[in-house]
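In this supplementary section we document a worked example of the pipeline. Step one takes a protein sequence of length 289 as its only input; no multiple sequence alignment statistics are reported here. Step two produces a three-dimensional model, which step three serialises into structure tokens for compact storage. The input and output of this example are shown verbatim.
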Amino acid sequence: MIGYRLKRCKGLTLIELLVAMAISAVLTAALYRTFIGQHKTYAVQEQIVDMQQNARVAISRMMREIRMAGFGNVGDVLDLPGGVNGFTNVITPNDNSITIVGGFRQISTLAADAAVGQNKITLANAKDASEFDGATHHRYISIGGLESNTVQSITGTDLTLEKPLKLDHKTTDREGKPLIVPIFKIHAIRYGVRDDDGVPVLFRDLYPNTVSTQRDTVAENIESVRFEYFDAIGNPTAIPANIRMVKVTVTARTRMPDIEIRKEGKLLKEEYRRRTIISNILVRNNLNP
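The serialised model returned by step three reads:
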């Protein structure tokens, strides 16, 4: 009886073992291929999301500041010899870059009334006043967004202006309630694309055409940016004073190339995925008032 039982409990043959191993290998390869495919899809989608986000960031910041071009009634400072940091127009057009001038950033508020004809104003605190250090690229100011001037000198919280004020600026109403008179710093800003160690980036130059240019990276992997300019009736124009709309075309690419992009049935090697965003930006302020 014992011998009979041992006869029936025989093991696997070599052929059965090889078949089992072959089936296991096929299943393992299929699972591995599925995993690799899903991982690649996830990586590509992540890069696409980053690319689209970069394009949106690039467009968003440019839109906000191009709309504000000319804000602060900047005509008085643009008329100065050399204008604002070498620019004499609210918008200096170029196909691949744009330079805009305006009061893009509020620095402080007026601390006391300022009357027509006086050439001195008082800000809320000395730190705010120090923003206008009198240097060529830090001296342009807009009071209340209504008139522009240049700062000659600073004493504590007081700014001495080069020209007398044209308007009254009240810090209280007739009932004695406080009024806020904002103080803006006027900048010249340039946007364009440059190469940063092999990575194309959208840059934002602050105070261009001076030795103190501050260059910031707004968004990475921005392959190109193109600007087109139109007048009030929608005709293309290259005359700065006639520009009423700016069309911006931004092309972004993925951080890494995709080795499986197909175009017209052909497999392209080391090709980037790209997205293009187009935006029409209306210039809110009258140019060169």
